[in-house]
Amino acid sequence: MATTYKLTYYNLRARGEPTRLAFAYAGVEYDDVRIPFDPKGEEWLALKHSGRCPFGLIPILEVEGVTLCQSMAILRFVAKRHGLMPSNDLQQAKADMFAEGVYDLENEIVRAMFPADPTQQKALMEKFNRESLPRQTKYFEKILEQNPKDEVYCVGNKLSFADICFFSFYNAYIAKGQLDPPVVLKDCPRLAALYKKVRDEPKIKEWIEKRPETAL
Questions:
Q1: Which terminus has fewer CB within 10 Å in the chain: N or C?
Q2: Which residues sit opposite 60 in a β-bridge?
Q3: In sequence order, what DSSP letters do the residues of 9-52 get, joined into one string?
Q4: In 3D, which of 100, 85, 213, 211 has the Cα closest to residue 166?
Q5: What is the pLDDT of residues 69-112, one digit of tens each?
Q6: What radius of gyration, in Å, describes the C-alpha atoms of the chain?
């Protein structure tokens, strides 16, 4: 009997999209459950208080009677099962390093987008776009510059979860779902090439074309 997967997240790309992209690339069917993005909405509150969310957060992935949470843990689990994990420990560590750097940047933009004091949102987003985003993007570019010139991916010659993590962040938060590389990658040729490489993977491209249009 085939394994069944149930991924539950908001009707957004954001933290749920890397796993959706991984499933798409691997050709794995799953139940893509989406709830409205409303912290006070009935669907979210019912789910939150149902006991199904180990930390009271989503995304969650239900598989074989187990519920997993934390977006990076879910992504790595899917990567290990479906051929998106680098082949040795050192490459895995490098992929983890890159993906965690992306996750740090995602946490920062989320704090700017949804600050405790809403009146600070504009200033925080301006600072993020002026300082944090270009600085971290240059760090990512320098990491890729250390790879051989014929290697497009983060690690080796094969797509990994780190590449998906990178593409998903820049596509969802910076490019707003648009297919062209965002302007911040203009002076980062290795990152721009990676963005296009992931985007143009046939199964990922197919998913992007049919996925629901969302605000984020």
A1: N
A2: 8, 69
A3: EESSSGGGHHHHHHHHHHT---EEEEE-S-TT-HHHHHHHTTT-
A4: 100
A5: 999 999 999 999 999 999 999 999 999 999 999 999 999 999 99
A6: 17
Helix (H, G, I), strand (E, B) or coil at 67: strand
In single-letter form, the type of residue at position 154 comes to C
Return the CATH class of domain 5-82. Answer: alpha beta
| Model confidence, pTM | 0.96
The token duo for 94 is 């490098």
- Domain ranges for the chain: 5-82, 89-201
Question: 7 with 31: CB under 8 angstroms?
Answer: yes
Write the pLDDT tens digit of every residue in 146-196: 999 999 999 999 999 999 999 999 999 999 999 999 999 999 999 999 999
Query: Which architecture does CATH list for 89-201?
Result: Up-down Bundle (1.20)
